[in-house]
Design goal:
Layout (H helix, E strand, L loop, with lengths): L1 E9 L11 H4 L5 E5 L7 H13 L3 E5 L17 H22 L5 E2 L3 H9 L1 H14 L4 E5 L3 H9 L2 E7 L23 H14 L1 E3 L5 E3 L4 E4 L6 H14 L2 E3 L4
Parallel strand pairs: 1-2, 1-9, 1-10, 2-3, 3-4, 4-5, 5-6, 6-9
Antiparallel strand pairs: 7-8
Helix pairs in contact: 2-3, 3-5, 4-5, 5-6, 7-8
Organism: Psychrobacillus vulpis
GO biological process, one term: carbohydrate metabolic process
Keywords: ATP-binding, Hydrolase, Nucleotide-binding
């Protein structure tokens, strides 16, 4: 029996700016990565997203990003490992405050956007982020790109670590994600996207853009909640996984 977690980035609205259909997509996912105010989100959005996730029985994680609201945290910034450590601790603390008001515990931490991609390749930054998570609570699960520097750092420090794959992204031959600056970074064909996910979970393989077979570990699958058809895609991927004898449940 195969098993996989379905996670989604949520809480990314800000003030009057509304992004995504949270209430609907929460019906189909098992883990929510909630923005903590640096790349998206605000205190009221964080509280409401936590409340909705709890109501739907979805596990909650912090989604710390770079301090870049205008760039949605997707622009790289030159930060030191210590700065990486500090911004992760700060944002985990912000979300933990809201969780405490509901008597709920945090399941995981997943860096966002450029911070996530930088940590996938930079071992020093990856270690700083893993250390930040561990120092806040060794019981937290660290989500990172499958077989990256971030998952390596998490495992070496003693954290439970979930190797993450992406439903709508293409891969390079080294196992990294295709840069969003390239036209072929996203998979827009729903059937192709879901077929890729099923193969990653059941066979541990993905075909790269260089047409090579790459071994990959898939503990958790990221789906994006801000697309035009995000809710219908979430429903479809969950149903397809289950029809392929894959149990959809939180990571641990």
């Amino acid at each position: 029996m195969f098993r996989a977690d379905l996670n989604c980035d949520l809480g990314e609205s800000f003030g009057r700016y509304q992004l995504g259909e949270q209430k609907e997509i929460l019906k189909y996912i098992t883990s929510a990565n909630i923005a903590c105010g640096f790349h998206a989100g605000d205190p009221s959005v964080m509280r409401e997203t936590v409340k909705l996730a709890i109501e739907h029985g979805v596990k909650i994680g912090a989604h710390p990003g770079l301090p870049d609201l205008n760039g949605f945290g997707r622009r790289e910034m030159k930060i030191t490992p210590q700065e990486g450590y500090d911004i992760v601790v700060y944002q985990i603390g912000a979300l933990n405050g809201f969780l405490a008001t509901f008597g709920e515990e945090m399941q995981h931490v997943k860096p966002h956007g450029a911070l996530y991609n930088m940590a996938a390749k930079d071992s020093e930054l990856a270690h700083a982020i893993a250390q930040a998570v561990y120092d806040v609570s060794p019981s937290l699960v660290l989500f990172g790109l499958a077989s990256s520097e971030l998952t390596t750092a998490g495992e070496s420090i003693g954290l439970r670590t979930a190797h993450e794959v992406f439903a709508d992204r293409t891969y390079q031959s080294d196992g990294s994600l295709t840069s969003r600056q390239q036209s072929d970074a996203l998979i827009t064909d729903t059937n192709k996207s879901v077929a890729q996910v099923v193969r990653m979970v059941t066979e541990g393989k993905v075909i790269s853009q260089q047409n090579t077979e790459v071994m990959i570990k898939a503990d958790t699958i990221c789906i994006h909640g801000d697309g035009d058809h995000a809710v219908s895609f979430a429903k479809y991927i969950k149903e397809t996984l289950e029809s392929n004898s894959i149990v959809v449940s939180a990571v641990f």
